[in-house]
Amino acid sequence: MVRPVRRRWRWRWHGRPMDVGIMAAVLLCVAAEAANGRWCEQTEQVTEEEVVTPRREDAVPCPSVYQYSLAGWRVDRERMRQVYGGERGVPPTSTQHGAALCYIYRPAETQTVVRNRTVRACCAGWSGPRCTEAEGSLGRCHAGWQCQDAPGARNLSAVSMAECCRQPWGHSWRNSSSALCFACSHQPLTGDVPAAPRGPTARHRRPAASCIAWAGSRYRSFDGRHFSFQGECAYSLAASTDGTWTIGIAAGSPPVLHMTFGLDTVVARGHNVSVNGVVVPEGRPHLHGGISVTWIGDFVAVESGLGVRLKSDGRGMVYVTVSAELRGGTRGLCGPYNDDPTDDFLRAGGDVAPLAASFGNSWRIPDADLELSCSDAVEPGPGCAMGSAAQQAAEAVCGTLLTDPFRQCHDVVDPRGFYEACLELHCRDGGTGPSPPPAVCDTLGAYVRDCAQRRAYIEWRRPGLCERQCGPGQRYSDCVSSCPASCMAAGTAEEGHCRDDCASGCECTPGLLLERGGCIPQSSCPCLHRGHLYTPGQSIRQRCNRCTCRGGRWICTQDRCAAECAVLGGLHYVTFDRRRFSFPGACEYTLVQDFMEGTLLITAEQEACGGLQPLSCLRALSITVPGASARLHSTGEVVVDGHTVLLPFASAALSVRRASSSFLLLQTFGAHLLWGLDTPAAYITLQPAFANKVRGLCGTYNWDQRDDFATPVGDVEAGVTAFANKYRVSPECPVLSPIPFEPCSTYAPQRELAAAACAILHGAPFQPCHHLVDREPFHQLCLYDVCSCPAAKQCLCSALAAYARECAQEGAALSWRNESFCGAQCSGGQVYQECSSPCGRTCADLRLDGASSCPGLDDTCVSGCSCPQGLVLDDGGQCIAPDICPCQHSGELYPAGSKIRQGCNACVCTAGTWSCTDAPCPDAAFCPGDLVYAFGSCLRTCDSAEPNGTCAGIIDGCVCPPGTVFLDERCVPPEECPCQHNGRLYHPNDTIVRDCNTCVCRRQRWHCGTEDCAGTCVATGDPHYITFDGRAFSFLGDCEYVLVRQADGLFTVTAENVPCGTSGVTCTKSVVVELGGTVVHMLRGRDVTVNGVSVRPPKVYSGNGLTLQRAGLFLLLLSRMGLAVLWDGGTRVYVRLQPQHRGRVAGLCGNFDRDAENDLSSRQGVLEPSAELFGNSWRNLGLELPEHCDTMSCMEGCFCPEGTVLHEGSCIDPAECPCFWQGIAFPDSAAVQQGCRNCTCTAGLWRCAPTAEPCPAQPHCHDSEFACRSGGRCVPGAWLCDNEDDCGDGSDEVCAPRCAPHQHRCADGQCVPWGARCDGLSDCGDGSDERGCPPPPCTPPQFRCASGRCIPRAHVCDGELDCGFADDSDEAGEWYP
């Protein structure tokens, strides 16, 4: 691995033309032009691996191979194939001499060495691909990656490239004078972030390598070697040395590509692609079993999870790209990928061929049909005769590759190999038409694509030179985006990686978006929801909000919606905030309690029921509201205020009616509930007025699942049973065990039966709802019920009915019941319906509240037997027309048409209600009598000490005096009551920690701080996710997904998942963090890369505040932007955001807005019903600072033992720690003089002896320096207003903005061009433009120290440090120009 560690500059101008034989005359103009650039030599130290012990080979008995593998030996597959034959070289089981021999080898052992290397780079003050751009050059800054202008995009004019690329949104810059476009990745980042690799450095170590085959005879290997091979057979284009994947190419027009990835086979002839024999429709993406087929521009791309990717234009241009993991592991016509082009002609036999023909023939794939066998290729001769007209025509066309606009890329991509290919192909195909032959155009296009992948974009096609036509609103590009701006991603900017894998084709012009093959303005974009397209202006409803399609995005109203809590079967609970849990408990529990105003209390009574214990069944539900209380029994009996009532019942406080044969409906102020009769279930719905006011087993109704387990005393329990125990109505109920009950684990024989029974949820009857409602939670509920089901009892139907109800609420009424399966018998003309209105379906309903029955419940579905539409059920159980329903008056029924008088008005019975005249009547006074409501005596304890608390009951016994409660056999003030949390008692003023807040026990309640806390998103293998707002879901996706993206584009975190093993579990292969122009790539088992350059943590970048550090098993990334990413290199990824990003992010981690209900928002901003639809919408279309330590949770891993600290890889005693001063490490007990005091290093800290008098003041800063506001530091005047905080207090960046960005501000305020700095001439009136400049070179033969000091040459290497304190360059033999 090569890593730059130090750079020193030696200045020398370059202008010597290249000697390339026959190309000398053609390339002379290139060398002359290069001389105009400001090029200098750069000497840098690099770290390389040197072979210490060469590779060793041996042959051993095959049974002993395992023991050798433990010692580092590996099987030599190539020799095994040569000796034993076959593709895998499998030896026989035995021979006449005993066990067969296996051939093994031990890889070479290497050591790290440091060498000097000289590379060419731009001189100081110059930039650009050809070093022709002075630092003061101005241009236009673009938010797009190819200097594109788009409506609404941010752009700046008249700025330098450096200033453009410092903008978080700045992606490309066009020079105003040369009109050339440069991508910002060419610019060094602020601080010491390594720039994207270029030139020789990029070729030395690359994150991936590509091999190209085109025109039937031209090839470029993985290591960049160009050659011609005119084979007419089938050949191995590329393959892994271990045989896990192969790519073959058969000559033809177009060529046939045969790919094998493990057990999968892909065949491509042109754009006809098949995977394992199944044809993939052209233009339609295919993803299955780790094989993906995608279409980008004119190309089709095939990729596997093995690190290899192929793309073909269907006419003969083929790219094979392999990842860095395959370095040293490839073979075939593309050569061995090892960064050494000299061995690229490695034949199948293991030797290096001198000629391309013999090399290519060795990789021929034998043909099974001998009659169709082909002959070996021969080495081709010169294409055109020397000096012929054909040669002159070829040079005229191909010479364009050596001139503008191609010339701007010459220093990034060497054009010589493409130039030679162009000459050969032009001579082969001729060129008599107005445009060059297609093979020549393919060659020029291949060069431009190589340039574009290095962020150098060239616009070269024109009439007469390979021009390509596109449809309306489109343009042709040699590097189209792999994630083009489309209506499906409207409103999101193109990301930097979208053009990393270049392909040619037509793409939409800036300002237009792709939609079904055409390009349209964003205002015409449709929206997608649940697989259906909606045109602009169309609306849908999401719960109580209306969403309108505008410009490809859903714009929704933000009304707070009612919330529902479900109790299913007495075991399963779904809170208002959609958190699910289960527990069996035979007790009465509080479901909902209004702890703010005391207007609502709902409890559920569970009883033990038969079967596999422990089990409980829902027996009754009680509700208490101001002025009334009701109790609903499982038998259908309804008791109000202690009296059994007939239905329907209505009072001033509540009403109860039969909604269908399966449900009762109870309504009260701000709430209603459905009580199941056929299956034990209760559905409680609260209006938003109760938000943040309730608690109980139904949760907190605050759109945050994380505090749904809040208890009556203010803490939040972690476990289900501890939480449920807090809401027992009576302390006499048994306390639940902390061990959760898992029936499918407890009763193993039931597991297979449950799996087979519950599989119906995945079958055809429920298929219409699969894209609307996530079925997995109900499948788990079904398994739980069936595994714990008693003998001779039907336990499957309740779970299926719960899923069917959710589907009906979403508009999918399923027909899943029949006479033999969960059947329901209806009578009196009624029919079974999955979704019918709960009100107005009987004559009794009409008598109760007329046509205005159940306001606000129009969208509520109930299942069960009810009359067909247009009919109602009469009192005898028969469906009749509403017009003949009788009316009730004074307890008697009157037939339709009857007339009575009410007061001064006449009334007629019509459709079950009295229709009365509206004449004014005299006022009347009504006296209710002398009724009095009295409270009884109550023995209040700490459990009932709060104002709205409940008592064990009215008693006639001894009670505590008013104002006291009973505790530990004595009466005490309520202030002495303890608090409870997690099964422990806490005394008053004790504290616990909740998130980032501290909770204090006061008056039996927890009072917690209200500081806004950071949010953490968790993504683990298997695969589970927990959003910032606490929403938990599972999503099995083996692709790259956006975990979190900041709305303003400040950062993006993506994770690539791949299958692990055969169980369907996925693991995280890599995590990519994009911070402005910085890309951090964390790849499993590999070094971290920053902008493609490997780094080893700990690493700190001062400019953008990026920090990388190892923390135990984890890799930690921190940023000043309030982002932290933690990855264990396998299955666990943690993303932590500071509160300033609340509501400003999106992705699989949710939107961090405290509302877990809307976390499954798709890329288009609309809620999806299932984790699968939501997850697929976010598929990617393309050292720790001390102040952060206390914000991260604990981690496992290797740490130093207690009492020791880590230093340079070892654990040492803290007393042995060195001290640091001015960047130099001093050992323990070392002494230095700091100011006028003597200081000694003790246990890593400087201990300075006090002085009798304070140290004299330091001399004032030099005229050419700036005095910082604090610390007394002096910095060069040239550092002022350079956008770097050099003082540390920001005082050097507080400047009057009186000069333009491209000008230098003199000390007297005068503005001069930036190029006037340090040019040897005094342009400022006070000469300040020449102050703080680098010192002039030393006079030969003097030696110049690293500090700039000049000393005699005789003082070098004399054993004395003559350069000054902390500068050992004179003894290290290093000199500085």
Automatic annotation (TrEMBL):
In which compartments does the protein localize?
Secreted
Cited CDD domains: LDLa, TIL
Gene Ontology annotations of biological process type:
cell adhesion
Q: What is this protein called?
A: VWFD domain-containing protein
According to its record, what are the GO cellular component terms? extracellular matrix; extracellular space
Is ATP-binding one of the keywords UniProt gives this record?
no
Q: Which residue ranges does UniProt annotate as crossing the membrane?
A: none
UniProt xrefs under Pfam families: C8 (PF08742), Ldl_recept_a (PF00057), TIL (PF01826), VWD (PF00094), VWF (PF23244)
Give the UniProt keywords, A-Z: Cell adhesion, Disulfide bond, Glycoprotein, Repeat, Secreted, Signal
Q: Which PANTHER family match?
A: EXTRACELLULAR MATRIX GLYCOPROTEIN RELATED, SCO-SPONDIN
Species name: Callipepla squamata (Scaled quail)
The VWFD domain sits at 209-375, 563-734, 1015-1190
